[in-house]
């Protein structure tokens, strides 16, 4: 069961690294090539959004059907296990939201960079006339 969270955490780490690379101040030629390369990767990487959404639904379903341990009948070990599962679920929700947010951020950054390049080309054409 932990494999999907391991994959999701690696994807979030990779997305964070790509977001840092795309936003670093670099020479124009390198930035354009980097944005082009990242844009090619973005479409196949879209799988992360439905995957994270499915994981969020799974967390919600497990939370709704979890046995509550709030009475005095529960032992200390049961209560600790219950609290640990709650903390893991909260961590996993943050991981899913971070994956979706980072994907969206990278997409918007690349789109802005492409729009900026197009505007620079239009400006060059008007200046040359």
From TrEMBL:
Main location: endoplasmic reticulum
InterPro entries: BAP29/BAP31, BAP29/BAP31_N
Start and end residues of each BAP29/BAP31 transmembrane domain: 1-122
Membrane-crossing segments per the record: 35-57, 89-107
An individual GO BP term: intracellular protein transport
Top-level division of the source organism's lineage: Eukaryota
Keyword presence, Signal: no
Membrane topology: Multi-pass membrane protein
One GO cellular component term noted in the UniProt record for this chain: endoplasmic reticulum membrane
Protein localization: Endoplasmic reticulum membrane; Membrane
Keywords from the UniProt entry: Endoplasmic reticulum, ER-Golgi transport, Membrane, Protein transport, Transmembrane, Transmembrane helix, Transport
Family according to the record: Belongs to the BCAP29/BCAP31 family.
Protein name: Endoplasmic reticulum transmembrane protein
Organism of provenance: Arachis hypogaea (Peanut)
């Amino acid at each position: 069961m932990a494999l999907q969270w391991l994959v999701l955490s690696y994807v979030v780490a990779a997305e964070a690294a790509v977001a840092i690379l795309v936003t670093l101040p670099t020479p124009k030629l390198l930035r354009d090539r980097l944005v082009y390369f990242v844009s090619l990767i973005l479409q196949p990487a879209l799988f992360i959004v439905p995957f994270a959404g499915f994981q969020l639904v799974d967390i919600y379903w497990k939370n709704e059907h979890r046995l509550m341990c709030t009475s005095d009948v529960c032992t200390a070990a049961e209560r600790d296990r219950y609290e640990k599962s709650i903390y893991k679920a909260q961590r996993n929700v943050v991981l899913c939201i971070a994956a979706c947010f980072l994907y969206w951020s990278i997409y918007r950054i690349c789109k802005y960079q492409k729009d900026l390049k197009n505007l620079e080309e239009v400006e060059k054409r008007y200046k040359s006339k």
